[in-house]
Amino acid sequence: MADVLKGNAVAKAIKENIIKDVEELAKENKVPTLAIVRLGNNPGDISYEKSIIKNCDNLGIKSKVYERNVDISTEELVGLIEELNNDSSISGILVFRPLPKHIDEEIIRNAVSPKKDVDCMHPWNLEKIFEGDISGFAPATPMAAMEILKYYGIPLEGKNVVVVNRSMVVGKPLTMMLLNENATVTICHSRTKDLPNITNKADVVVVALGKAKFFDEKYFNENSVVIDVGVSEDENGKISGDVDYEKVEPIVSKITPVPGGVGSVTTSILLRQVVHACKIN
Ligand code: NAP
Questions:
Q1: 20 to 30 A from 104, CA-CA: which of 51, 199, 249, 256?
Q2: Do 38 and 97 meet the contact criterion of CB atoms below 8 Å apart?
Q3: How far apart are CA 125 and CA 93, in angstroms?
Q4: Ligand 1 center to residue 165 CA distance, Å?
Q5: Looking only at Cα atoms, what is the longest distance across the chain?
Q6: CA–CA distance, 82 with 144 (Å, rounded to integer)
Q7: Which of helix, strand or coil describes residue 23?
Q8: How far apart are CA 122 and CA 127, in angstroms?
Q9: DSSP alpha helices (H): ranges in the chain?
C-alpha cells in the first residue's frame, strides 16, 4: 500500500499563509483583487469560476468577473485587458483558456501586464521559470506538483525524475522547476520508445497525458513516487488520472490520487499569486 499524497493538506497549508498575507495587506488598506475574464458560458469555465470565487471569498480576496461574448474580437479583448492592466484596484488577471479559435492567443498572452499575470500567460514570466528566477508568476499546475513534493518531503536533489509530458503548460516548466531542485530530469512524450523501461527506473514519475488509466504496474517499481497530473474521464464517465490507481497504488511507495491530488492544489497556487501581485503592484 502506498502513502497517498493528498492535495487537500497541501492546499490548506498554502491557504493558511494566504490568510496571514491578506491580513498584513489589509493593514496597508490593500485588498488583493482577481479579475476573471471569461468568454461565453462554457460549463467547465463556469464551474471553475465558481470554485475560484468561493475560495477567494473564504480567503479575503476580492474577485470580479468580466464576462464577454464568445465572438469578441482580439482587439476588443486586448482593450479589456489593457483596461484591467491600468486599473489600480485589480491585482491579478486570469483569462480563461482555451480561447476561441478566432482569437490570436499570442497577442493576448503579450497583452496581459507581466506584473498582473497570475496565470503565467506572458512570455516574460515563462522565461523567468526557464532562468530559475522565482520573482515572477509560475504556471499553477507544475507549481502544484512541486508543492506536493515539497510538502511531503520527497527529496529531489540527485534523484532521477521522469516527466511524461512536454507541453508548455505542464512538462517544460515543470522540468525547469525540478532542475532548480537539482533533480536529474528525463522528459518523455508520444514518440518515446520503451516508456515502461524508462519510468520504472525513476525515483519520481510525473505523468500528464490526459489518457485515463494509461499507466499500469509495469511502469513503476516498489520505490516509485507517482505524481498524476492527468485528468480525464474513464470508460464509465468517471474522473480519472493517467494512472490505473487500483493496480498501481498497491505496488508503489507514494502516489497522488485523482481527484484530490494535483488538481486540488492549483487554485491555491493561483490565489497565492494574486496576493503576490497585490504586494508588487
Ligand atoms: P497536452 O498538451 O495534450 O500534452 C500531453 C502530453 O502527453 C504530450 O507531451 C504528449 O506527447 C504526451 N503523450 C501523449 N500520449 C502519449 C503516450 N502514449 N506516451 C507518452 N507520452 C504521450 O496536454 P496538457 O495541456 O499538457 O495536459 C496534460 C494533462 O494534464 C491533461 O489530462 C490535462 O487535463 C491535465 N491538466 C491537469 C491540470 C490540473 O490542475 N490537475 C491542469 C492542466 C492540465 P507529444 O508532445 O509527443 O504529443
A1: 51
A2: no
A3: 14
A4: 5
A5: 57
A6: 29
A7: helix
A8: 9
A9: 7-27, 43-59, 74-86, 105-111, 123-131, 140-151, 171-180, 195-199, 245-248, 263-280
The model's pLDDT over 120-141, given as tens digits with 9 standing for 90+, comes to: 999 999 999 999 998 999 999 9
pLDDT of 175-213, one tens digit each? 999 999 999 999 999 999 999 999 999 999 999 999 999
Distance between CA atoms of residues 82 and 91, nearest Å = 13
**What residue ranges define each of the domains in the chain, with the CATH number in brackets?**
27-115 (3.40.50.10860), 140-263 (3.40.50.720)
Q: Is 136 in contact with 125 (CB distance < 8 Å)?
A: yes
Written as nine digits, the cell of 139 is: 504556471
- Cα 210 to ligand 1 centroid, rounded to whole Å: 5
Residue 43, exposed/middle/buried by CB under 10 A (0-12, 13-18, 19+)? exposed
Q: Give the C-alpha separation, 130 to 245, whole Å.
A: 32
Q: Tell me how far apart the alpha carbons of residues 199 and 260 are, in angstroms, rounded to a whole number.
A: 23
DSSP-assigned letter for residue 100:
P
Q: Are strands 3-4 and 204-207 parallel, antiparallel or unpaired?
A: unpaired
Question: Is the distance from the beta carbon of residue 231 to the nearest atom of ligand 1 less than 6 Å?
Answer: yes
Q: What is the pLDDT of residue 259?
A: 96
How far is the centre of ligand 1, averaged over its atoms, from the C-alpha of 147 (Å)?
20
Name, in order, each residue with C-beta under 8 angstroms of 154's C-beta and a sequence gap of 6 or more: 204, 225, 254
Q: What is the pLDDT of residue 107?
A: 98
Q: Is the pTM of this model over 0.85?
A: yes
Q: Is the CB of 212 under 6 A from ligand 1?
A: no
